[in-house]
Amino acid sequence: MSNADHAAEQAWQDHCDAEFQAELDAANEKIKRMESFINRFLDPEDLGYAVNKCFRDDAREALGRERVESKSRKEKP
Questions:
Q1: d(CA 65, CA 60)
Q2: What is the pLDDT of residues 4-44, one digit of tens each?
Q3: CB atoms within 10 A of CB 2
Q4: C-alpha angle with apex 65: 62 to 69, nearest 5 degrees?
Q5: What is the per-residue pLDDT for 76?
Q6: DSSP secondary structure string, the chain?
Q7: Of 5, 32, 60, 77, which shows the fewest CB atoms inside 10 Å?
Q8: Where are the domains of the chain?
Q9: Contact 41, 59 (CB under 8 A)
């Protein structure tokens, strides 16, 4: 492989890496915004009292936390 070919390949790889990093950064920003939104349902001074306990537990599960106010969906008849 010539030096020119190697340089072109490296330039392409750098471009792909930068594009991937930009997409990853955008996805991480979306995740942060969604987590922030879901957390609003757990805050009694925000939307916490606007939804029922089952909805708040669903929000907890979406955040990877345990249910604390209602039974698991799996335990329901």
A1: 5
A2: 888 888 888 888 899 999 999 999 999 999 999 999 999 99
A3: 7
A4: 95
A5: 56
A6: --HHHHHHHHHHHHHHHHHHHHHHHHHHHHHHHHHHHHHHTT-TTTTGGGS-HHHHHHHHHHTTPPP-SS--GGG--
A7: 77
A8: 3-75
A9: yes
